[in-house]
Write a structure and sequence with these properties.
heterodimer; A: 361 residues; Alpha-Beta Plaits; Elongation Factor Tu (Ef-tu), domain 3; 3 domains; six-stranded mixed sheet; 19 strands; B: alpha+beta; six-stranded antiparallel sheet; globular
């Protein structure tokens, strides 16, 4: 029997309690799933500014003369295209193409990179990095304890953080050091905003400053509904070692010519196509799809599986993402979702399900 | 959201359901604790009038943004009325779990089952 281990807490635990958070066990971390309520927090991020404590996410620093060569071997994207002060998304693959994690990498200096991991994968990623570092003149350093991470997101986020830090913020997909804080123009909500990595001891004051300036504390519940509306992948739901990046719709961040681990399988999948594809969908009537629900074609035959589902707070419709047979993956295709025994009509959509910034027509 | 209360005139099932028993009839719902644990209810589909429900078995589902929760029947019987207003306003389950947020009315098949339910004090002890 496994011994019960204490849940890890972020440096903002006291602040969460003070803000009335409902705390849950999230992959071994005691994290706020919501404060006032998921819908209110979701809408605050879409309309104003929300702040998320994502300090449970891990960081791996890769440094040394061959840091680039090592990362080029590990990460699916072309890391040589990443400039100092830039950000890049990629996946970490096994040789057979299964996805171990999806990651943002920031280039902090000439030979210095910081890769942000999903909490549940951090230890595994770290072991994978170290295992493959042999033979490279590069060092892999676990930095999870060195950073607290706050995501400040929403149309008002930049103005609020600019005032608070009294500094110019980096544009999207770029980073800047502001004092001891690494400010990154990235996020997981589809809104503008920044993610701020800073020494844990400085996190409470920064959090309180954000709240005092009008940011709404937002929990992991809203983080999930926000990312699903814009069809960002969630590892463990939409990505796993059983799926390759091509069927997950992440071919855009795979540059097989770099020869990364898994590139041959990815190239083959890109060339020959995959049996299934991850697509967004909407229910045609009331109901909420959930992870694990079956997808049926119009003749009632099993045709896929829902990997993420929720009631979209902005659309007020049941939405989700599912791996479906490729012949059903076209936008507008009618399918049915088996929501715990009730078959509900649904329609395949294109990304994003909800567009926070529609282009003016 | 309502304040935490457990009215004395109700009977409680340990799975966080309440029954307001009146002779051979009962009104059923979920407790303040249940709706608080679930969070804001965003979807509820009432069962069919005429359906038979059995004590300790699920008869409906309530959903928050994040989770689905089975609603357990505290008593057995046949559904005589459902709260149709909840289809359009499921948040009533949070706002008024013992009033406007009631779920179904039931004609009891075995009113003596009521004796096995908890009173408010015993239910509160269970929660503490």
């Amino acid at each position: 029997m496994e011994a019960t281990t204490a849940l890890r807490r972020t440096p903002l635990y006291e602040q969460h309690v003070a803000a009335g958070a409902k705390l849950v066990d999230f992959t071994g971390w005691e994290m706020p799933v919501q404060y006032e309520g998921v819908r209110a927090e979701h809408l605050a991020v879409r309309q104003g500014c929300g702040v998320f404590d994502v300090s449970h996410m891990g960081e791996i620093e890769t440094t040394g003369p061959q840091a680039l060569e090592l990362l080029q071997r590990l990460l699916s994207n072309d890391v040589s295209k990443l400039e100092v002060g830039g950000a890049q998304y990629s996946v970490l693959c096994r040789p057979e193409g299964g996805v171990l994690d999806d990651l943002f990498t920031y280039r902090l200096g000439e030979d210095r990179y910081l890769t942000v991991t999903n909490a549940s994968n951090h230890e595994g990623d770290l072991a994978w990095f170290r295992e493959h570092a042999a033979g490279f003149d590069a060092e892999v350093i676990d930095r999870i304890d060195d950073y607290a991470m706050l995501a400040v997101q929403g149309p008002d986020a930049r103005a609020l953080v600019t005032t608070l830090l009294d500094a110019e913020l980096p544009p999207r997909m770029h980073t800047a050091m502001v004092g001891d804080a690494l400010v990154c123009g990235t996020g997981y909500t589809g809104e503008d905003g920044v993610e701020v990595m800073l020494p844990p001891a400085q996190a409470p004051a920064f959090w309180e400053g954000l709240l005092a300036a009008g940011a709404t504390p937002a929990g992991l519940g809203a983080r999930d509904t926000l990312r699903l509306e814009v069809c960002f992948h969630l590892y463990g739901n939409d990505l796993s070692t059983d799926r390759n990046p091509i069927e997950a719709g992440l071919g855009w961040c795979c540059k097989e010519a770099t020869g990364f681990i898994g590139s041959e399988t990815v190239a083959a999948a890109r060339e020959s196509g995959t049996a299934e594809k991850l697509v967004p969908f909407k229910l045609a009537e009331r109901g909420i799809p959930r992870q694990g629900n079956g997808v049926l074609d119009t003749s009632g035959q099993p045709a896929g599986t829902v990997t993420s589902g929720t009631l979209s707070p902005c659309l007020e419709e049941g939405v989700g993402m599912a791996y479906v047979r490729v012949d059903l993956a076209e936008r507008g295709t009618e399918v049915e979702i088996d929501v715990r025994g009730k078959r509900r009509p649904a329609r395949i959509e294109s990304r994003p399900l909800y567009d926070p910034h529609p282009k003016e027509s | 959201m309502a304040d935490e209360t457990y009215p004395d005139d109700l009977k409680y099932h340990p799975e966080h359901d309440w029954a307001r028993v009146d002779g051979e009839e009962a009104t059923l719902g979920i407790t303040w604790y249940a709706q608080d644990a679930l969070g804001e209810v965003v979807f509820y589909e009432p069962p069919e009038v005429g359906a038979t429900i059995s004590k300790d078995s699920a008869y409906a589902e309530v959903e928050s943004v994040k989770a689905v929760s089975d609603v357990i029947a505290p008593l057995s019987g046949e559904i005589t009325e459902v709260n149709g207003a909840l289809s359009d306003a499921p948040e009533k389950i949070n706002d008024d779990p013992y009033g406007d947020g009631w779920l179904v009315k039931v004609k009891l098949s075995d009113p003596s089952e009521t004796e096995s339910l908890l009173d408010a004090g015993a239910y509160k002890d269970l929660l503490s």
